[in-house]
Amino acid sequence: DQQVKQNSPSLSVQEGRISILNCDYTNSMFDYFLWYKKYPAEGPTFLISISSIKDKNEDGRFTVFLNKSAKHLSLHIVPSQPGDSAVYFCAASGRGSQGNLIFGKGTKLSVKP
Amino acid sequence: DAGVIQSPRHEVTEMGQEVTLRCKPISGHDYLFWYRQTMMRGLELLIYFNNNVPIDDSGMPEDRFSAKMPNASFSTLKIQPSEPRDSAVYFCASSSPQGLSGANVLTFGAGSRLTVL
Q1: B65-110 pLDDT, tens per residue?
Q2: Distances (CA, A) of B11 to B8, B19, B47
Q3: Residues of B in contact with A105 (CB under 8 A)
């Protein structure tokens, strides 16, 4: 049973517009959520995280929103750029700075010029 | 630091052969993780170590898989004998705890793409 779900395998967005990537989770004990970005033939790289005690975290063009009651988080990229085209993974951690991350299956974002 | 180093980057082997994947974590990181990525299952954790000690190996698919971490700077993942269904990209990652106030940010290697014919 998947604890972290990314229900959209792909998303296509025009350059300059907003990209919204969604993630749902089932375990209310998760205390951190992270987003990773992955280019082909490379490993995933960390993008942004949010603690379960917050509802928003922003870093430049990237903002993550957390809705604990809905067990839902989203990553907003504004404005989207062609270089943002990659696979985005949502991940959750149950023990803060220790233990493993549980990943969703990823969403492939294509930003068209 | 050069980041997490994995070798080989690509491996093609025949069913029944032994496969050994290697990982050098970032110096100073005391957690090491092995993940496997497939189309069907996405990124799934196989095993992780803390201070060279295996903490959770519940993700190791079966006895054909084994992992070791003989010292803080080296880990191996072995598959013996290999099967076509083991074909996947295997990632190694390492991390260092951020204390009570931070997320566990894993740094991944570039992966080892395994093809078992």
Answers
A1: 999 999 999 999 999 999 999 999 999 999 987 655 577 889 999 9
A2: 6, 8, 21
A3: 41-43
